[in-house]
Design brief:
Elements (H helix, E strand, L loop, with lengths): L5 E7 L6 H8 L7 E7 L6 H8 L4 E4 L5 H15 L4 E6 L2 E3 L4 H10 L3 E10 L4 E4 L2 E4 L4 E4 L8 E3 L7 E5 H7 L11 H11 L3 E12 L7 H19 L5 H21 L3 H13 L4
Parallel strand pairs: 1-2, 1-4, 2-3, 6-12
Antiparallel strand pairs: 4-11, 5-12, 6-7, 6-11, 8-9, 10-12
Helix pairs in contact: 6-7, 7-9, 8-9
């Protein structure tokens, strides 16, 4: 049986704490036809060099600067497509995968050619709590929400697929292009998902495939909040339906006013990060 070729793209940035665990689990995967591409965004903690020594069979690409999530992954995606990838799997450097997680994803996408992107169910913590089993976009409140429910069917359609783990068929890139590099961090996955759905593809979460997310992004919370707010503003400016744009304009003004009140009440790193995001959004084209 001929199995489709899968390239697993892992984008690393100072991932010393988790990268080795992630790569070790991926090398245990029982799917017979995959390659790993490690793209490094100019890490300073030695994680990239250590991974290259321990796992000499992986393809390694080191960028000269931190290009962000979209641009960094796009380098890996282009590398994979040039080398005959049938599917590209974007995988965070802070996850651990089950050895059989890839087969159900491939089987699902082979059964339905209209599925453009699929995701495993993503668990978190020792209690195996569900972190992602689908996602909803709330256009009125300008936010996304992970679904955390156990799936009762083989797969579940979703408004978006998280960039933590998304497998994409090669034809999708031909139709919609790569990840949008206007996003440095966060919301690029929702943007890509929306574009893929507009191209008449389905998004699916596969109940039979599971991985664990170690969630390093909880660190440096103020920095995370900054990028979540700024990228969210970019996303809704780009993607909101025309009939909602007047409301989005008003809603953003209301959020700015709330932030100003929060700053006056308590000047802390989180409130200041939100303020900076709104300020910097004015300079984004």
């Amino acid at each position: 049986m001929i199995t489709p070729k899968v390239f697993i793209i892992i984008l690393n940035y100072n991932g010393q704490e988790f990268l080795k665990k992630t790569l070790s689990s991926v090398f245990q995967v029982d799917y017979p036809n995959f390659e790993i591409v490690l793209v490094d965004n100019n890490s300073k903690d030695g994680s990239f060099e250590a991974a290259r020594r321990v796992f000499p069979k992986i393809a390694c690409i080191k960028n000269s600067e931190n290009l962000g999530f979209s641009a960094g992954n796009n380098i890996g995606i282009e590398y994979a497509l040039e080398r005959g990838a049938d599917y590209v799997l974007l995988l965070n450097y802070d996850v651990q995968v089950k050895k059989d997680f890839l087969w159900p994803l491939i089987d699902l996408m082979k059964k339905d050619e209209k599925i453009g992107i699929a995701s495993p169910v993503i668990l978190i913590g020792e209690a195996h709590k569900i972190w992602f089993s689908g996602g909803k976009i709330n256009w009125f409140k300008m936010k996304t929400q992970h679904q955390e429910n156990a799936l009762k069917e083989d797969y579940f359609h979703s408004d978006y697929i998280t960039g933590c783990a998304m497998i994409i068929r090669k034809e999708v890139f031909r139709k919609v292009g790569l990840l949008d590099e206007d996003y440095f961090l966060y919301w690029e996955d929702a943007d890509f998902s929306v574009r893929v759905k507009r191209a008449k593809y389905k998004l699916a979460v596969c109940a039979c495939s599971q991985i664990w997310h170690l969630e390093k992004s909880q660190e440096k919370k103020a920095n995370k909040i900054y990028w979540l707010v700024l990228s969210g503003l970019i996303f809704f400016r780009k993607n909101s339906p025309a009939y909602l744009r007047p409301w989005i304009f008003i809603y953003v003004i209301l959020r700015k006013i709330k932030n100003q009140k929060d700053i006056k009440k308590e000047k802390n790193p989180i409130n200041e990060a939100v303020q900076k995001a709104y300020r910097d959004f004015r300079y984004v084209k």
